[in-house]
Amino acid sequence: MNDTTSDSHFDYDLFVIGSGPGGEGAAMQASKGGMRVAVAEKYTQIGGGCTHWGTIPSKALRFAITSTMKALRNPTFQELGVQVSPTLQQLRRGTQSIIGKQVTMRQSFYERNGVPVIQGTARFLDAHSISIDGDKPIRAKHFVIATGSRPFRPEGVDFSHPRVYDSDTILGMTHKPTTLSVYGAGVIGTEYASMFRNLGIKVNLINTREKLLEFLDDEIVDALAYHLRDQGVIIRHNETMKKVEATDDGVIVHLQSGKRVKTDAFLWANGRTGNTDNLGLENIPIEANNRGQLVVDEQFQTAIPHIYAVGDVIGFPSLASAAYTQGRAAAMHMLGRKDGNLRVNDIPTGIYTSPEISSVGKTERELTAACVPYEVGHSLFRSLARAQITGETTGMLKLLFHRDTLEILGVHCFGANASEIVHIGQAIMNQPAGHNTVEYFVETTFNYPTMAEAYRVAALNGMNRLF
Ligand SMILES: Cc1cc2nc3c(=O)[nH]c(=O)nc-3n(C[C@H](O)[C@H](O)[C@H](O)COP(=O)(O)OP(=O)(O)OC[C@H]3O[C@@H](n4cnc5c(N)ncnc54)[C@H](O)[C@@H]3O)c2cc1C
Q1: Helices (H), 35-87
Q2: What is the percent of the chain where pLDDT is above 90?
Q3: Ligand 1 within 6 A of 55 CB?
Q4: Residue 188, annotated ligand binder?
Q5: How far is the CA of 149 from the centre of ligand 1 (A)?
Q6: Band of pLDDT at residue 2, cut at 50, 70 and 90
Q7: What is the domain count for the chain?
Q8: Is there a domain that residue 86 lies in?
Q9: Whole-prediction pTM value?
Q10: Is the domain of 318 the same as that of 443?
Q11: Any idea which positions bind NAD(+) (predicted)?
Q12: CATH number of the domain that residue 215 is part of
């Protein structure tokens, strides 16, 4: 009898479906570990939703908006009478070149590591074989499903209407609306609300929950809500959509509460669906949940142990950063490398609103619920010389630490470059016991003037509260 699981029966040791960060992380780690790897990608270019319609284009557009609007607010420009209103096409112009650079660079990773990328849609035929666009079966010993997610589209909302968008189509918006309603105040909705407000568009942010971004520390959430409102964003909490009526001159959102909101355009940003519907899951005993997501264990194995799933297709935290780490962790597990501790549960949050937000570790809410005796240290950006020089004085760093051991338990930051600043705290927080305390920041000399100084200020502020 043939042993159909012996390596010689397989075309590849690992076949990866999807070339976003999840797929790339798995493919690179496995090929460096000596596995024969191939990848299927249905889009015309590699890089995934991350590169083409998620992280990269949205962050590139954000940068174009903030830097242009900042320049236009510059007193010298105003004195010179420079009063222009850039179009979305102009602001997006740089994005394609950034995407191009990303694709070229990532393509070279596959080429250098001898990993073929096969263009087409992969579909399982059975638990060890797939077909790409109906071609002859390819057999592999392991699989990684890294097919990502797409915006969930509710019935009754006409996404073909030129005034109605989701997070994929908003990037192609050609006209600049005067007013915009964003339905869904998760990370994507809040980021776009903030971005469009910076562009001078009047924004209604409709939140189905009680607070914005409830997984964040309350003080940070309150600060975000305060600053968004201060910039002119209208936030409506605890609202649920009844229907969306798109007309020639605007979009009316009818809310269950009886309110109606009319704006020039509408962005749906409420939920995402895992890309599992065309994967041939009916041919293998794996089922997606009602959001199209796959359930995995802590090694990222599905119900079939040699089929792994990583990234957005497994749901939370749905971040490019996490997807890449998960892909690498899955490959390491296949390679039997238990030594590579990738800290898959130590995922920082970076939210590119204005002000930017970033955090890692526990929130005050979590520590209070767990009865951990913690103390808080704050540093307000407005008292830092660097922030005074750059004029970016809105913001705060907050350290949560154990009042007995002084171990850092959480780092929460909002303000310019928060997503960079948080990593200093993360690095110390992950040191072995005895080296992971706020004392490090009290004893360390920081460059002056820097934003990193916020750590010393916050640590001293917190230590002063101890008795
Ligand atoms: C607007 C927006 C902003 C974001 N901003 C950030 C951010 O600032 N920071 C951050 O960390 N994350 C951000 N994210 C999230 C991030 O983009 C995703 O978490 C990340 O792309 C997930 O990576 P992935 O590898 O799981 O999937 P993806 O990057 O979506 O890649 C999946 C790939 O699989 C391919 N595919 C699907 N099905 C098949 C098939 N059957 N056969 C072959 N190929 C297939 C798809 O074509 C796609 O290329 C943002 C997302 C959005 C929408």
Answers
A1: 48-52, 55-73, 75-79
A2: 90
A3: yes
A4: yes
A5: 6
A6: very low
A7: 3
A8: no
A9: 0.94
A10: no
A11: 184-191, 271
A12: 3.50.50.60
